[in-house]
Amino acid sequence: MHKQNLSENSIEFRKVLLEWFKIHQREMPWRGVEDPYKIWVSEVMLQQTQVKKVVDYYIKFISRFPDVKRLASASLQEVLKMWEGLGYYARARNLHKAAKIVVDAYNGEIPSEYKAFRQLPGVGDYSAAAVLSIAYDAPYAAVDGNIKRVLARLFLMDAPINDNSSSKLFQQQADNLLDRDEPGLFNQAMMELGATVCRPQSPTCLVCPVNVYCGAFQSARQDEFPHRNKRIAVPEHHMVTGVINKGTAVLLVQRPLDGLLGGLWEFPNGRINEGEDVETACVRLITDAVNLHVKNITYLTRVKHALTHFKIVVDVFNCDYQSGELILNGPVDAKWVELTKLHEYPLPRTTHKILQHIS
Asked: Which residue is catalytic, options 19, 34, 43, 338?
């Protein structure tokens, strides 16, 4: 098998890749769909989330919000509840906000012009290129993590794939390689190649349809690429949470909409000060956050959870309401919710872990 110069044989590369994709692509509920709205939803969900996890969420979400007008008319709480467990909740908030703009400013039609679509909340360069190429055959090259890895191996690129300063280099290579006759199909083929063949570890190079064009395979250096900057150690934060009982109800507080896990509901919580006793911290944070005083404080459990940039260890206390009127300092809302009604609220994963210990 002789190496082919990719820059001189890009037409043949595109032809071979597309033929492979048309035969070997995985079946997904958003594949072969022409509705720009459904394509958009799938691309938002697929950001930083594996396909196998997205499939069920996508089907349920589209069933609940079959078009952009239905999504725009829904409450944010309804949208967040449907997104619950998928993570990266800013995606859901931005999609909801963008849907309202599409309905109000574009009469419910997803913009086909790059600048207009790119300006919608939550739409970045990748999303704009992916959605517009797949939905409208617009000639934009999408560059996600899978495609960066493919490009790095094809062209022996030294640029780290997790460094923002490398983005232009990868975009230029993708632009040069793009099949402008079938841009949407080509973008999907490149993503599929990265996800199923050109994998991060143990790439299956021998069955790769384009291995004759790959610099890394032809030089037996596929394990050296892509290059990646070392990640900084993930910090761990010690938190405390109070489950406050009032009769058969418990207190839920809502997180600020513009922050981490924005709009979700949880039990009052906060960080423990250095040298502070955890029970003392629980009482303090409840007073600080919601102006309530509690009694009958008992230790319930400890839960752990890992987020993207840090880990948390949470000591959880069960307690009873004693006195005080709700005054919020941090949360945007608070409600006494019957235990049997908790499932109606969008809750973070950590809260679900705590609920497993509440009878």
From this structure: 43
